[in-house]
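Researcher: Re-running this chain for the archive, since the previous output was lost when a drive failed. Same request as before.
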Amino acid sequence: MLEILLGSSGAEKVLLFIAAHGAGYAREISRSSGMGPYPILRQLDRPDTGGILASRTVGRTRIYAFNPSYPLLNELKRMLDKALSLSPAAEPEAAGEPPHPAAPAEPPIESTRRMTQDELAAYVRERLRRSGS
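Model: Regenerated structure tokens:
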């Protein structure tokens, strides 16, 4: 959905993961997205160098999160939150699974909602399926 704006589906997956979880490291994002760790590292390097992400090292692990001083951070987060809210992760029939029983009505999702690991994985699988990868 955002890969045209962000330049690649890898950049989209990385930024959506960080939007959903607040922070992440390459291997964690790799497992969730189905991409290898080295392509993920390349995708993390560009926004880190450009100031969109900030990183810190904890032990041997580099953790990435949004840079709070990035001037367009609020707009970027709103765009990513909108993409997360439109995620096809809630479409079990599309994945060949039986539909879940109807759940009671819930209040509208706030813009601060974050995807679970399973929702993000389902979203990434659907994006890959639609792109023919």
